[in-house]
Specification:
The protein is an alpha/beta fold and 405 residues long. 43% of the residues lie in helices and 17% in strands. It is built from 16 helices and 14 strands. It starts with a strand and ends with a helix.
Length: 405
């Protein structure tokens, strides 16, 4: 029975947890999988409920945290080496940057037969300054040489990794899109919509526009707020905006909204009706999507944004910046309107106004989302693709090729 050691950065809400959880749960029975991950940051919400709901009991390494800390990182590496010694995996598969660094170093030093890494996103722009970015690129190039296969989650990401950032050669990268159980985004949506709109006192004639995800600099909430102000001033409709999520930038974003003259409310402590509502985390995101009319994303950098896959599954029209793998996730002009600038609030606001002013356009874009994503991003396809890759890596001829590059 082949053994797979799956290592994820940390158990915080987001696409990597779902990806790792579904692969740990639904791989064919001939595979034995052990799931390992770090702890979430204090500013994040835990995703352990996702793995627990699937009956998984992961090993948690508290020292494996997002920030670089030599003491914690070494202790996490030491624990990972011991896990590899005890479990004796045939394949170590890491997900995201910190897990990819610690897990791949431990696997390579323990002579694991096959090492796989999935880039769920990357930090090669819009995160750090030039020197730190160069350092991270050099680390990833070194780790790529120690890896059997690199997985990109979109064709656009593969192109960026190979041609723009030169992390490794194209033949080492396999594109395997993410996969989810999307069924809940197409079930009982009328009831969920009524519940969300009652909870947040959103009248049926009002248009709800939401942005979903961590409140951190790379998500670019500044653009969202600047565009929101324009829409509120110019739309003929009654509009309310919802910021769903939380994170280290929360207070700064609230201050930014006030500086723009936008009235805000925190729905966790008040039932006030304001143009901007901070909801904090909503774990039942199908409940939130049912209640919204338009989903926005303003990121500076993305891999494959889960919020946009889920929005399409819920048949919600999207306005988004065109970054990372987004153009491989949505259909421009059909399920989403793309804004080609990461800083032009006027352009983003105009696309939002296209939707707020036309119920017909919203309804047209809402009709095709589910059909677009239900098979392309379903977890059964993800499991099938990954099973094929694992068998390829376990093939003796393939192993000889890897040992003689």
């Amino acid at each position: 029975m082949p053994k797979i050691l799956r290592i994820i950065n940390r158990f915080n809400l987001g696409g990597p947890t779902y990806n790792a959880a579904y692969l740990s749960k639904y791989m064919p029975p001939e595979f034995e999988t052990l799931l390992v991950g770090g702890e979430k940051d204090d500013s994040e919400d835990s995703s352990e409920f996702i793995v627990k709901s699937l009956g998984l009991d992961p090993i948690i390494i508290p020292e494996m945290k997002r920030e670089i800390d030599l003491k914690n990182d070494y202790e996490a590496y030491r624990k990972m080496v011991n896990i590899i010694k005890d479990f004796k995996p045939d394949i170590v598969h890491t997900h995201a940057s910190k897990a990819g660094t610690i897990g791949r170093l431990a696997a390579a030093n323990m002579n694991v037969n096959a090492i796989v890494h999935t880039f769920h996103g990357h930090v090669f722009h819009s995160y750090f300054g030039k020197m730190k970015t160069v350092m991270y690129k050099n680390i990833e190039r070194n780790l790529a040489r120690r890896s059997s296969t690199i997985i990109a989650i979109s064709e656009k990401q593969k192109s960026e990794l190979c041609l723009v950032h030169r992390i490794c050669k194209p033949e080492k990268i396999k594109v395997i899109p993410l996969g989810f159980d999307l069924s809940r985004f197409n079930e009982n949506m009328d009831k969920k919509r009524a519940g969300f709109r009652e909870r947040y006192r959103l009248a049926e004639h009002e248009i709800g526009i939401g942005i979903i995800g961590r409140i951190v600099p790379v998500k670019n909430h500044k653009l969202f707020l600047e565009a929101a102000k324009m829409v509120l001033n110019e739309s003929s409709q009654k509009i309310r905006f919802f910021i769903i999520g939380d994170g280290e930038d929360r207070l700064r974003v609230e201050l930014m909204a006030k500086e723009l003259g936008l009235d805000c409310t925190d729905a966790t402590i008040s039932d006030e009706i304001k143009p901007i509502t901070f909801t904090s985390w909503i774990k039942e995101i199908d409940f939130a999507l049912a209640g919204l009319d338009v989903v926005a994303l303003t990121s500076l950098n993305e891999g494959t944004p889960v919020s946009l896959i889920e929005a399409q599954a819920a048949n919600k029209p999207i306005v988004t910046t065109n970054v990372g793998g987004i153009e491989n996730v949505v259909i421009d002009g059909v399920t989403a309107l793309l804004s080609h600038s990461k800083t032009d609030a006027r352009q983003f606001a105009d696309r939002l106004l296209d939707l707020t002013e036309s119920a017909e356009k919203r309804e047209f874009m809402a009709r095709v989302g589910w059909d677009h994503v239900r098979n392309k991003f379903h977890y059964t396809r993800l499991v099938r693709d990954m099973t094929d890759l694992y068998y390829e890596l376990l093939d003796p001829a393939h192993q000889r090729m890897l040992s003689n590059p």
